[in-house]
Amino acid sequence: MSDLLSLYRAMVRIRAFEDAAEVASQGGVAAWGKQASATPALVRGPLHLSTGQEAVAAGVCAHLKPADLLTSTHRGHGHTLAKGADPAKMMCELFGRASGYNGGKGGSMHIADFSVGMLGANGVVAAGLPIAVGAAQGLKIRGIDAIAVCFFGDGAINRGPFMEALNWAVVYHLPVLFVCEDNRISATTASAPMTAGPGASARATAMGIAAVQVDGTDVQAVSDAAAELIREVRAGSGPRLLHALTDRHKGHVSVDPGTYRNPDEVAAALARDGIARVRARLAAQGLGARAEQVEREAQAEIDAAVAAAAAAPPPDKAAAYTDIQNVGAGVWA
Q1: Kindly report the CA angle at 228 between 83 and 208, in degrees rounded to 5?
Q2: Which has the closest alpha carbon to 124: 94, 102, 153?
């Protein structure tokens, strides 16, 4: 069982990061029915928040080692933070600064930090699945004592790479844990009417992968389930799947008000907020003051990350031609 206070720390760091990124993304351009403000947004372009899903990232990553590899989704800030990435470098990347993880040229959906095993977020739905099994096969071939973990959303299970990746993992008996963050909405459309059968865990079981479904808003339940599945994967038992039922509190992107969603469903999701549930448990254990301290520390860390990102310089114009295959390109004017 993971220490509840440590899990809480991971969750509130993610929430503080997402809240700050959301604020920084407002303004600039008209979108989703909103008018552009006179003040340009500090974060430009798509920004997909994982607000409400913190328990899944925290509960799974609590059991990973630096050598373990991880692939993420377009909604990947939480996974990246939980795997050990630097929030200041992440915020710099969101702000398009030269000191960001991708030199300010990748933005939210392309943050990677190989030093902590984070192979990257991915803007293509289901694209992280085959990358994860490829990474797992590489670990197996090279005899490295580590595993791969792949986060994906419920919308990904209706795309070909999901079935291809699970099949590949079973055929080659790979050390990979698949984690479905099932928030029951794919972009702006409810997933259930588009999905045949019970969902990710049933499809995994049909392919011979042991799967566990868990309340993805209960970080202790996620942690306990992940601990056992990861133990089995490390022991050489082959791939496993964790199906976490969770909630996305926000719209598809940070400037999306989510008016297409049923207000009652959103209210119910907010009422079972994973962070609030842990805070209540800690208070009941006499750890309310410690929880408040953790919250203050997380907020201070993210405030510092925002300040660093706002003060950091943008990439030099010539950087547009770095990290690409330059065939006959002209000189940057």
Answers
A1: 100
A2: 153
In this structure, are residues 59 and 223 in contact, taking their beta carbons and an 8 Å threshold? Answer: yes
- What pLDDT sits at residue 208? 97
Distance CA 281, CA 275 (A): 10
Residue 28, phi then psi, degrees to nearest 5 = 85, -70
Tens-place pLDDT, residues 60-119 = 999 999 999 999 999 999 999 999 999 999 999 999 999 999 999 999 999 999 999 999
Distances from the Cα of 99 to the Cαs of 48, 93, 103, 122, in angstroms? Answer: 21, 7, 6, 20
Question: Would you say residue 330 has pLDDT above 70?
Answer: no
d(CA 212, CA 151): 15
The residue type at 141: I
Cα–Cα–Cα angle for 10, 15, 20, rounded to 5 degrees: 130
Cα distance between residue 282 and residue 287, in whole Å: 5
Residue partners of 124: CB distance under 8 A and separation at least 6: 74
Helix/strand/coil for 99:
coil
| Contact predicate 243/156, CB 8 Å | no
CA distances from 25 to 86, 94, 266, 307 (A): 20, 9, 22, 15
Q: Are 48 and 82 in contact (CB under 8 A)?
A: no
pLDDT at 28: 61
Chain centre distance of CA 58: 10
Token pair belonging to 159: 């795309």
Q: Which 3 state secondary structure label does DSSP give 250?
A: coil
Sheet holding 118-120, edge to edge: 118-120, 69-71, 148-153, 176-182, 240-245, 210-215
Question: SS3 helix, strand, coil % of the chain, rounded to 5?
Answer: 45, 10, 40
Count the Cβ atoms, other than its own, within 10 Å of residue 224.
Answer: 17
pLDDT band at residue 32 under the 50/70/90 scheme: low
